[in-house]
Model the fold of this input.
Amino acid sequence: MKKAVWSLLSLSLFFLYTYFFPDHVGLVGPATKRADTAQTKQAAVVREGVSVPDIKTTETTTTETDLYTVTRVVDGDTIEVERGGVREKVRLVGINTPELRDKRQLVHCFAEAAKAKTAELVAGREVRLEDDPTQDDRDKYHRLLRYVYVGDVLVNRELVAQGFAYEYTYRVPYQYQKEFRSLQTRAREAQTGLWSDTCLHT
Done:
């Protein structure tokens, strides 16, 4: 009987000791396991060269902080800028303006006016460029695909709002699509610019 009591007492003391001093007997409690697991994951990420706070799944736009001088306005939706010592053509994302020349060498209605408006907004000025993570960096003609800002004015938006450009989606919706389509609807209802009777009946 005494032997059984001593065995039970010894077992109880052992469990109490391992509970309060797990490190002394090589045991690890649940909280310690969670901490170690988190540290292991963090260490694995650091070994890959990425810190934990930098891991993101949300796509964001990137606005270049540098300003680029516009050296030429090609047409209503394409400009040329001086960028890193190289002249780059920039195609404005989300819009399309009437063609100055098509395969039949015809000038489309309002094409000259659209080019003139773009020139009024950007020619000879310094602009900021913003990419769109939903779109390619360049199109098939190797033009940069960008939103163009003069100060706080988004030129792409301004051209649609004033009726100098159509809203244009190429394959994948871009981030301002909903807004541009809304602005286009307003311009069309007001018969502004290329939505005027002159262009609609030519």
